[in-house]
Amino acid sequence: RRKNAEHLLSQSEAQYRLLFNYSPIPMWIYDVETHAFLDVNDAASRQYGYSKEEFLSMTIKQIRPQEDVHILEQTLQRMKQYSESYHKGVYRHQRKDGTIIHVRIESNTIFLNGRKAEIILALDITAEVQDEEHIKRKNRLINATNTFISQLLEVDEWTEAIDRSFTVIGQ
Description:
Blueprint: H1 2-22, E1 27-31, E2 37-40, H2 42-48, H3 52-55, H4 69-81, E3 86-94, E4 100-112, E5 115-124, H5 126-153, H6 158-170
Antiparallel strand pairs: 1-2, 1-5, 3-4, 4-5
Helix pairs in contact: 5-6
């Protein structure tokens, strides 16, 4: 019986390792106290440009742009204060080459080797964020054009229309 239980446990650990390592979704586990990476999968290495060995010598603060580290610290403090076991949000991360990406994070608290840790899924949503910004810029241009046309139609004198046009353009 004991040998069978050990065999089942070993099989379960092997399946976990396979699912974690070969998931197409970038994932990592970090220590809640030290913020050190404890494990990362292949997809995270591809997304961020760091080897597994490099990741394991880093903390989660090192994949954030320097100006965003305070946001991470506030999030970690809030999670600790409210004992949140599940968290999600959109954040900026930085690849090894310095490129900033937007990621949707989902995390759960786990215990690994007796230590409190977080398992993280990090989906790159940079293209979606850029698309949203492009749409917002286009909407602002459309609104400005509509305002411009409305003001032109409200006046009888072309000199007044030109003055209003420059006022709109200046906005």
